[in-house]
From TrEMBL:
It comes from Vibrio eleionomae. This is DUF883 domain-containing protein. Residues 1-20 are annotated as: Disordered.
Length: 82
């Protein structure tokens, strides 16, 4: 009987140890994912700002071409939506 209690205690302790390790690993994984997501968001923001600036410069340099492209795009969308 004492042996059974000792096994249950040992098993319970093992379960607690596994639970603790799982919690630690989960927290570490969540922190890693959070950091990687922040890096990706910052990288995406920089890329978007770069593309946005390029498009803005193109519109400023060639306003009539930009208006023509917008008109053609509008006509195509109108035809597709009919």
């Amino acid at each position: 009987m004492a042996n059974e209690k000792m096994q249950h205690t040992t098993t319970g302790e093992k379960i607690d140890d596994v639970r603790t390790k799982a919690e630690e690993l989960t927290k570490e994984a969540a922190e890693t994912i959070k950091e990687e997501t922040k890096k990706n968001v910052e990288s995406s923001k920089k890329a978007l700002n770069s593309v946005s600036g390029s498009a803005e410069n193109m519109v400023k340099d060639k306003p009539f071409v930009s208006i023509g492209c917008a008109f053609v795009a509008g006509v195509v969308l109108a035809k597709l939506l009919k």
